[in-house]
Amino acid sequence: MKISEDEVRYVADLANLRLTEQEVARMSAELGAILTYMDKLNELDTREVEPMAQVLYEAEETATLREDREGATLGSEAALANAPLAGAGHFKVPKVIER
Amino acid sequence: MTAAEIRSLTVEQVRQGLTAGRFSAVELAEAALAFAQAENPKTNAYLHFCPERALEAARRVDEKLAAGEDPGPLAGVPVAVKDVILTKGVRTSCGSRLLERYVPPYDATAVIRLEQAGGVILGKTNCDEFAMGSSNENSAFGPVRNPVAPDRVPGGSSGGSAAVVAQGTAVVALGSDTGGSIRQPASFCGVVGVTPTYGRVSRYGLVAFASSLDHIGPFARNVRDAALLLQVIAGRDPMDSTSAFAPVPDYLAMLDGEVGGLKVGLPREYFKDLTSESGECISRGIETLKRLGCQIREISLPHTDYAIACYYIICTAEASSNLARYDGVRYTRRSAHSETLSDMYRNSRGEGFGAECKRRIMLGTYVLSAGYYDAYYLKAQKVRTLIARDFSEAFREVDAIVTPVSPFPAFKLGEKIADPLAMYLSDIYTITGSLAGIPCMSVPCGRTRQGLPVGMQILTRHFDETGMFRLAHAFEQAGGFDL
Fold first, then answer.
1. Do B438 and B389 meet the contact criterion of CB atoms below 8 Å apart?
2. Are strands B263-267 and B400-404 parallel, antiparallel or unpaired?
3. How much is the pLDDT for B419?
4. pLDDT (mean) for B338-360
5. Model pTM?
6. Within the 51-90 window of chain A, which residues sit less than 8 Å (CB to CB) from chain B?
7. A12 touches chain B (CB under 8 A)
8. Is A86 helix (H, G, I), strand (E, B) or coil?
9. What is the mean pLDDT of residues B153-173?
10. Mean per-residue pLDDT, B93-116
């Protein structure tokens, strides 16, 4: 399977990931090789198989929902402490709306 | 305490030393920190130390001892924690430039539990960036060197945690495993590494890589210490809805049970291509199991050949969503060169992530993108069902499965870094157990003629850590580690 450089740029766009031209070229070759390997799965007929979305095991029934009770949460100061830019209790980002 | 004493400490020896008054927890913490800091340049296994936190934890242990209270099963034990597990107030970088300055506002549940049990966290260990890798060479802060052979990798992604336990700069350590990241480095460094049943240990505070596959688990120099550490961190946690309700048995009480008559399966798919010296070590390990009275029989796990493709589709898909949160808004690093919001996202991520993370984000985004979801992601989830079913069928016939951990022992730094697919293929023996969500562990099983450690993998049914530990312990007692 070949992944063209344009396809790489399209996927990088979906992933919000800036790639250099060098990275685009390398990614095109590497993804192609890896995806070719993954095509191996097509040897298997899985029409009658349920997808395994999570690990399942024999277990007794449990109440997985906790009681709806108030508890301690992170304060906004702690939550903002790692922000590259914050102010007035908010995360700051570059301007989104043009005037 | 001498360096030689610190290097080989067990949990039991720490307990005896404390109760006999040979050292206090603070004295031990100070000596262990000094030793670890002096040794670290040899391996680069610790990324940072947290002496204040360590000494505070040690003081609490000493206070309890002085007051005649129970200081907990891990009292005073020097512990290392992989740097993808959150420690409040102590930098947690995930081996990434992106989180170089990230200081978590809360502790992981496993960290809280091990400190409540008296454990003393010395520092955080190096790893592949966001736990993505099999050699520890994807760390933004330089690779870890294998303490057994410094020109070789320690394995990955929990290479630092395996290395500190092998080097003796911690008694036990926490790692994380998604497709082999505890077992493979344990095998490369010659220590015990345990991946418990999925959900056995809370993932709260484990930085997410692939949520349906991520585990926290212990490293130790013997089976008893590994079982004890798991005992401390295991159990339901309301903060992780996928953590299991199943009661945690007393692993230590059942460690010495009989293994004669135990049915042990060898999957033929795992042995057919195993021609390296590692294979010879595993064969000697199997002979030891026979001497212990285990009934060895050949079994088949027919979908083994599809596991790598299946795993790398699922884990990259989940990684691409989990890593979407690193967008320059909340987590410390933002690109300095961006006018618009969209540029800010793209540049922050492009500058922050290393090559392997970018590759996996790209693969994951590709397999989830419109038109490819059914062909790759859904297909892989169905194949995962087949792989899990292979194991449940096998466990009707046998009580445990024994396999190699890795096709080869620790390789040289730089040897495999240029070919990502070849690196992925080396995970073949560990990712099947991860996909099925069953408990698996690596125990030392002799060394190659060059002196490189080889690991044997033991896998059991969901939540049968007890059976797994018992077999591993019998193997250890029979001299299996030093074959």
1. no
2. parallel
3. 87
4. 95
5. 0.97
6. 51-60, 62, 64, 66, 74, 78-79, 81-85
7. yes
8. strand
9. 98
10. 97
DSSP code, position B376: I
CB contact under 8 A, B330 and A27: no
The CA–CA distances, whole Å, from B5 to B31, B33, B168, B349, B447 equal: 11, 14, 9, 45, 24
Residues of B designated catalytic: 82, 157, 181
Tens digits of residue pLDDT in B252-285 = 999 998 999 999 999 999 998 887 899 999 999 9
Local structure of B398: helix, strand or coil: coil
Whole-angstrom distance, CA of residue B54 vs CA of residue B232: 18
Q: How many residues does chain A have?
A: 99
Tell me, what's the pLDDT at B10? 97
Q: Rounded to the nearest 5 degrees, what angle is found at the Cα of B353, between the Cα atoms of A78 and B50?
A: 45
Half-sphere exposure of B16 toward its Cβ, with a 13 Å CA cutoff? 5
Contact call for B378 and A51, based on CB within 8 A: yes
Measured CA to CA in angstroms, residue B123 lies from B52, B195, B252, B385, B415 at distances of 10, 21, 27, 39, 29
- pLDDT at A63 > cutoff 70: no
**Cβ pairs bridging A and B (under 8 Å):** 162
Q: d(Cα B50, Cα B432) in Å, to the nearest integer?
A: 36
Pair of tokens at residue B102: 């990230």
For B383, residues 6+ apart whose C-beta sits below 8 A from its C-beta are A41, A44, A46, A49, B303, B306, B309, B310
CA distances, B382 to each of B113, B318, B361, B392, B393 (Å): 36, 16, 22, 16, 17
> What tokens does A91 get?
């995360």
* Mean pLDDT, residues B359-378: 95
Prediction ipTM score: 0.94
